[in-house]
Amino acid sequence: MKTSLMLLAALLLGACGRYGAGVPACCEAQLDAALADCPRADSLRQLLRETPRCNRAAMACLLVGMPRGDRDTMALDLLRENVQYACRARRDYPWTRALPDSVFLNEVLPYAAVDEVRDAWRADFYARFAPQVASCRTLREAAEAVNRSLRDLVEVDYNTAREKTNQSPRESMRQHMASCTGLSILLVDALRAAGVPARFAGTPAWHDDRGNHSWVEVWIDGEWHFTEYYPSGFDRSWFLPDAGRADPADRAHGIYAVSFRETGDWFPMVWNEDSRAVHGVNVTPRYRALWRAAADSLRAQGTHVEVRFVMLREAGHAAASDDRVAANVDVFCGAEQVGGGRTAGPRQDMNDCLTFLLEKGRSYAFRYENARGDLAEVTATVGDAPLTVTGYME
Length: 394
Hints:
- This protein is α+β, with helices and mostly antiparallel strands.
- Helix content is 37%, strand content 21%.
- It has three domains: 1-74, no CATH class; 100-293, Roll (C8orf32 fold), CATH 3.10.620; 302-392, Immunoglobulin-like.
């Protein structure tokens, strides 16, 4: 059910209705509708009445907007704790106090990033990250402080041996490992605990069907900026060229962000493909624009050059169409991944070539799995002229 801006404003005025001070009578119909077929409606109404007046508007918004499954089953103590510490962050942090009500209610207050198990993370993360942001004065500073300290405070690293894709914070911290999805859930929750508006984002699959990926968006100065669990700054990542090639009309390869508020669309979850429970926003056009601007800037500066990568069956073969092999390739500069993609196969046009925009004067490693299943690597140093690098499957 949608929560309009008029409803949000009314909630925050603090008028008194039969749900108690802080929940105006004009909102009672929407609360009644949300609770009408809930098996524990009386308990939720009592929870709302028991919520301190200063937090009651936030609790009402959660009850109106939360998924039905959560409304029917989510532990009341989790709801109580989530609202208590989200509202505490808004009182404590100047960047959270300055947020529009609509942003606070949709990107700070929510208790979940996607469809993960509902954990009691809010109080724990508030305590962990309050010291990290104590000296911050702006939202950007707070976001950077949380991102910079997160890995050391939760001791979780990327690992494909994790139990499942959409792990909750507690599940990831118990195993000390998570997928990119689990890592992104951790970062969203840590940022929200520090009063920083954040949301989960990702793609079901890259344009070349190389796999899915998840990351995080942060709302700063009225705009969304992307980042990841392992920080590299805002709007900078190895995946930007891939995101920039996404098609906004192609749901299977688009870029989406999560919304707690209803949007009329859903977020595609590859670990739960049939679900429509998580609201989504198609943000593909913004990533296409970001990549065009970044690529144009690098070319204009003269600091980068195009590097083509071709995969052939074996050494000694000519680069004819029949000799080419489609394979996933990741590009590293030192320990940092700076790109990735899938090479053109034998049936693709000879002009269709995996191309990267790489910085001049630096050495790069092109890594892939060969025909034997072993990790193979080709290295190259980029000069002033465009370069073609060749890998071999056998």
